[in-house]
Structures are given as C-alpha cells and as structure tokens.
Amino acid sequence: MSSAQIEIQLIASLVAIACAIPGTFLVLRKMALITDAISHSILPGIVIGFFITHDLSSPLLIVMAAASGVLTVILVEFIQKTGLVKEDTAIGLVFPVLFSIGIILISKNANDVHLDVDAVLLGELAFAPFDRLFIKDIDLGPKSLWVIGTILIITVGLLFTFFKELKVSTFDAGLASALGLSPMVMHYGLMTVSSVTTVGAFDAVGAILVIALMIAPAATAYLLTNDLKKMLVLAITFGVGSAILGYWMAHALDASISGSMTTVLGLLFLLVYLFAPEKGLLSVLYRQRQQRIEVSLLTFLLHLANHEEKEERHVQHLNEHINWQKVQATSVLNLALKNNMITIDNNIVSLTDKGQHFTKEAIDYIITNKNSEIEHMKDRFFLFRG
Amino acid sequence: MNPQEYIELVFTDYTLRTITIGTAVLGAICGMLGSFAVLRKQSLLGDAISHAALPGIAIAFLIIKTKNSSAFLLGALISGLIGTFWIRGIIKKTHLKSDTALGLILSLFFGFGMLLLTYIQKMPNANQAGLESYLFGQAATLLESDVWLMVIVTGISLIVLLLFWKELKLLLFDPDYTKTLGFNTKFLDILITSFIVVAIVLGLQTVGVVLMSAMLLAPAAAARQWTNNLAVMVILAAIFGAFSGILGTAISASQNNLSTGPVIVLVAAVFVVFSFLFSPGRGLLFREIRFRKNRNDLQLHKTLSFMYNIAKTHEDISHPHAIRILNNFQGFTRKSLQKLEDKDFVKIQGTMWSMTTKGYHAAANLYNQLLKQEDE
Question: What ipTM did this prediction achieve?
Fold first, then answer.
C-alpha cells in the first residue's frame, strides 16, 4: 500500500464516521430525505462562494455552502408551514430549483470557472491526496483530511455533549420541550451539522455518496438493533467497513471509488434486509406465515369448543365448513395434534382438557384484554409453533 | 431576437421545433401523471426513480455495446421499476420509513450506476461518449423519433387514465373504500406507479436525473392551488407543464450557454411561486387578505357588543354616550366607528355616539346563529 492509498482510505473512513453520526439521527427522525435536498442545493452556495473568492479551496466556499444547506431547510419548512403542499412535495420543489440556479450560474460563466458539475455531484476521492495543505512549506497531509477531521471532531464533541438531549428530542419531542430541552435548537443544530458534514464530505466523495453514507449505514443498523448507542456503533462500523472494502473494489475494477463504496453499502443493506434476525424480509415473511397458521388454529379450536354435535366435528366437514385449503387444514390439524390440543377418534375431532383450557383462556383474552399481546399465552401453551 | 422571429424559427428550424415539441409533450405528460404522484404523497418517488434508472442505462449499454435510446429507455424502465418495488418492499415489510427507503434506493442505485458508468468509460470503446448526458439531460440530443415515442406514450397513458379514471380517482382519495368495492387496488396501484415510472424515464434524456423530480412535481403543485377538482387539476398541470417546456426552451435557445433542463425547472418554479401567492382559494396573498378582513369584522363585532352592553342599561337605547368610554381594549378605532356609522348601526354627533334601533337589534342577535347576518 502506498501512502496515497492509505490516505484515501483514511479520508473515506473519516467521512463515513462523520456521516454516520448525523445520519443515524436523521433516519430516526424520519428526515432522511433532507440530506438529499441539502446535498443538491449546496451547489449554488459553492458557485457563489467561488465567484467571490475565485479559489476552490477557500473556507468561504464551505461557509456559503453550509448557509445554502440551512437555507434549504428553512425554505422547506416555510413551504410546509403554509400548508399548501405536503412535506415531501416541499422538499421535491426546493432542491431542484436551487440546483438549477447553481447549474445555470456555472454554465453562464463556463469560460472563467474551473468548476465541473460532474465533480461536484460525484466527487473524486482518488485526487484527494494530491490537494495538500502546506504551512510554511511543511507538508501536513491532504487538505480534505484536515477538513473532514475538524468536522468529525466537532460532530463527536457535540454528540457527547448533547447525547441525552438528542436522544430525548428524537424519540419524544413533547417530553423534551416539557423538560426544557428545546427540540427546536436540537433540530436546527442537527440540520447545521448535517449541512456542514455534507459540504465537508462532498468535495472528497461527491454529493450522492454523502447521501448514501448518511442513510445506508444507519438504515442497515436500524434493521439490526433498537438501541440508540448500538445503532450508532453499528452504523459507524458499516460505514467504515464499506469505505475500505469499496476502495479495494474500485481498485480492482479501475472504476469510481465513490460509486463502488455505494455499491458495497447497497450489497450490505441487501444482505441485512433479507437476513436480519427479527426485522429482515425472510424472518418477517416466516413470522407472518406462522401467525396466519396460529390464527387459523385458534379459529379452529374455538369452532370445536362451540360444537358438541359429531357431524360438525368431522375432519371432512371442517374442510368445507371453515373453507380452508386442504394443505392448510392438514397443517393446522397437525399443529393442534402436536400441541396436544385435540384428539382424532374415527375422523371425529374433539378437544383435549388442555385444548379446552386454552380455548377458555383465549375467549377471556379476546373479550377482555384487547390491547395486550396474545404471544405470552401462546408461549405458555404451545410446544410447537406454526 | 424578438418573439415573432423566434416563433417563425420554431416552425422552420428542425432542431428547435423538435426540442420545443419534445419538451412541451414531456411537460404535459409529467404534469398529468405528477398530479397523481403529488396527491398520493409520492412526490419524492420521482426523485428516487430517476436516480434508480441510471444503472439500467449503464447495463443496457454494457449488453448491446452501442448507443441506442430505446434500449436505454427499456433498461432505465426495468431498473426504475425494480427500485420502485424494492422501496415498497422496504416500507411494507420492515419498520424503516418511506423517507429512509427512498433515500436508500436513490443513493444506492445511483452509486451503482456511477460505478458502472466509470467502468464503461475505461473500456476501449469509443461509443460510450454521451452517456453522461443522462445525468443532467441534453434537450439538444432529442430526435424526431424520441418525440414520436413521447407522443405515443402520452397517448397511451391518456387512454389508460380515461379508462380507469373512476377507479384511480377513488383509489387516490379512499383506498380502503376502493378495496371494499371489490376493485383490485394492487393492480391499480401498480398501473399508476408504472406510468409514473414511464414518464420519468422519458424525461431523463431531456432534463436529466437530478431535475426530473421537479418536472413531475412543480406543475402538479402549481395546479393544485387553483382547484379542488381532480380533472381540472390534471388538465391544468398538463398545461403548466407544457408551457414550462415551451417557455424554458425559448429562453435557453435565445441565450448562449444556457442548458434547457434547469431553465425549464426554473420556469416551472415560477408557475409554482405565482400559484402559491396569487391563487384565489388557497394563495398566501388572498389568505392574508381574508385573515385581515375576518380580524376587522371581529373587532367590529366586539365594539358593537360593547356598545350594546352599555345601551342595554338605559331605557332609551339611543341615549348618547361619550366616545371616550370606548377604549382600545374593545377593538375600537376611528375607522371601525366610521364603519359602524356607515352601516347605520350608530349615530355620531361630535364626541358623542348613540345606538340606532337597527344597530341594537344587530348587536342583540350578534351571536345568534339562526339569524343570518346581513353584514357578512
């Protein structure tokens, strides 16, 4: 590994961490799309900043860009408050307009601006090590490393200082304001941090990867845990992991680094989306099937409890009477047998003592505790689940 | 170039005519289908789909190795649909919310598309040039065949909209009721979503991935302000969209270095801002005027009822009182007093006021809902 390669991976990892922290809160606050808006609408800020300073590396650019990011948030909220359109429409209206203004500003002055829309939108991490910071001719390393490092330190500092406040205002804004924690300050603080992070990260990794790095690790982590601290740690791990993996994938394919980092994030999310315990697609589908059968079982047992007469309890009759498919009827019957709820004598189904006990409690439950979970009852009675 | 010359040029110049018709048709179809997207609260779906279409274009190029806009459209359509259904899967089957799902699919698909594009650029094949035009759109690359394709798709979607109008309208406003009536809501849902995807994919070449969502939203959001009727809204949105296309093309053609896509978006944004401010029913200006008027009416009522309470204590209701005793707390101003006099509720003589019989009755029945008040 050459020193440039190490530097690129270091920058990518720092960006991933700096993005994952605000990203986690944005995902939890259902504001993930505001990053999309910010990352596009900082373009006019950068262009105007460039017109003023004629220097692409001036800190004024970051200030202007962050200001236009915050302006986006304010505009979106203003339009929402008028109630003329829905929230998402407000986002969808604001950022293309600001982005268009940015593009037009660039294209009208194309001759004297060395600013490329592609570069702004997509970034080029491979060039980051060549833009170095010098103080009195001493090489202090790549400039973007310093920029993102500073942002990261501030973000982490804010996170530790205001963790409790952020947590409360994220999950219960009402409680937060009752406790005097001012959710509004937290909201705009988070928005400012997101804007600054987006700006600081975008010239290293591009606007689109910023969105991916903010949302994808947090969303992936959210599928695995319900604990805020664990979610933060997981999101950071996923971000850094895919940053490094993505770099080597880009190296192998000789393609865009930011593109392959996003692709790794995508694959990671797909994997977790399919296989996450409890919240993944497969386990959700499995649970839904299980619950369908268990509900059928309950209906079936209640039917038995209601009918003394033999013809109502004949196996064949149940097929037609409750209108089940043959397969389902068989699996429900088997489940009931396995759980010792019924006995089948000469094709006549009857409840056992345990079955009667269960149906009695189930009826009590249905009549009285509508809101509590039936799962405890199932745990007590079922030897085998559906 | 004056407008007349420009209009002549539109009819004589092949490129300009193609672009103008193309953007107008695109604006119309986007406005039409965008109305449904806006009302279904799927505004940002357009943004997500347009980004999600990128890998489809790149894969189509990798397979056929040449540039062919219909193959690209097909690729974009397929990957846009995959993106859409994945978004629905995430929202339905996990606890992630719609904003997270949209942002995820948008950025992940786009990043994958960029990976493929940069990979393609490194390939020893000169044909790849121009693939980037899908990022920001280049209306100048529109051909007559592209415009025909747009017209045909617009025609088909118009027919489908008319055929399923009643069902779609019902689905839009009350999905549960639609289901109980026995309509196949899943089919209708997929139908309208697919058409939205088609419209987005058609627009990619002209306005590009990033600005496509505004094409879809802006005309519909503007049209929404003028009416509460779905049919009127759809027609208005189509008109707004078409005019944004025509005007945007005209402005960008008359200037140097002005790409068409962003200008069209800005023109559409002007429509939106104008509608937000000046629409008579919902616009901010008229809302503020109504608000002021209501406030003034309320102040007037307060003054009147205060006067009534004083006059009530006297045998002669028209007994004169000093204006001094009406203070600001009762919402009294010189202007409102003048208004009351104009309505013949009070008489003013010098610094004294007295209530008329008409004013007394009006004040007595001020809060009586059964009697319709004539002063409103």
Answer: 0.84
Distance to chain A for B257, nearest Cα, Å: 5
Domains of chain A, earliest start first: 3-240 (1.10.3470.10), 282-381 (1.10.10.10)
Dump pLDDT digits (tens) for B16-57.
Answer: 888 899 999 999 999 999 999 888 888 888 888 888 998 998
Residues 6+ apart with CB under 8 A from B111: A208, A209, A212, A258, A259, A261, A262, A263, A265, A266
CATH number of the domain bearing residue B344: 1.10.10.10
d(CA B151, CA B138): 19
Domain that holds residue B361: 286-375
Measured distance CA(B363)–CA(B340) in Å, rounded: 11
Residues in chain A with CB shorter than 8 Å from the CB of B214 are 92-93, 96-97, 100
* Same structural domain, B370 and B275: no
**At B118, phi and psi to the nearest 5?**
-70, -35
Query: Three-state SS for B333?
Result: coil
B210/A40 touch (CB, cutoff 8 Å), yes or no: yes
* Nearest chain A residue to B132, by CA: A118
Amino acid B261 reads G
Residues B183 and B112 in one domain: yes
Q: Looking at chain A, which residue has its C-alpha nearest residue B268?
A: A97
Contact A32 B100 (CB under 8 A): yes
Of B99, B119, B266, nearest to A33 by CB-CB distance is B99
pLDDT of residue B375: 45
Neighbours of A171 (CB within 10 A): 12
How many domains is chain B partitioned into structurally? 2
Residue of B62, B118, B225 to mutate, testing the A interface (most A Cβ within 10 Å of its Cβ): B118
Helices B45-52 and B98-121 cross at an angle (nearest 10°) of 20
Q: Are residues B275 and B308 in the same domain?
A: no
Tokens of A111: 């001759």
Asked which of B279, B314, B339 is the last residue of a domain, the reply is B279
Q: B268 and B322 share a domain?
A: no
pLDDT band at B376 (very low <50, low <70, confident <90, very high): very low
Nearest to A255 among B46, B95, B115 (CB): B115
Which CATH number goes with the domain that contains B210? Answer: 1.10.3470.10
Same domain, B144 and B273: yes
Same domain, B13 and B64: yes
Provide, as residue numbers in chain A, all residues whose Cβ is less than 8 Å from the Cβ of B90. 273
The pair phi, psi for residue A323, each rounded to 5°, is 65, 50
Per-residue pLDDT of chain A (386 residues; tens, 9 = 90+): 678 888 889 988 999 999 999 999 999 998 888 888 888 888 888 888 888 887 766 778 778 888 888 899 889 888 888 888 887 888 888 988 998 898 888 877 765 555 666 666 666 677 777 777 777 777 777 878 888 899 999 999 999 999 988 899 888 888 888 888 888 888 888 888 888 888 888 777 777 788 899 999 999 999 999 999 999 999 999 999 999 999 999 889 888 888 889 999 999 999 999 998 888 889 989 888 888 888 888 888 888 888 777 777 777 776 666 666 666 777 788 888 888 888 888 778 888 888 888 888 888 777 776 666 667 777 777 777 76
The last residue of a domain, from among B226, B248, B279? B279
Q: Are B266 and B150 members of one domain?
A: yes
Crossing angle between the packed helical segments B144-163 and B165-173, to the nearest 10 degrees:
80
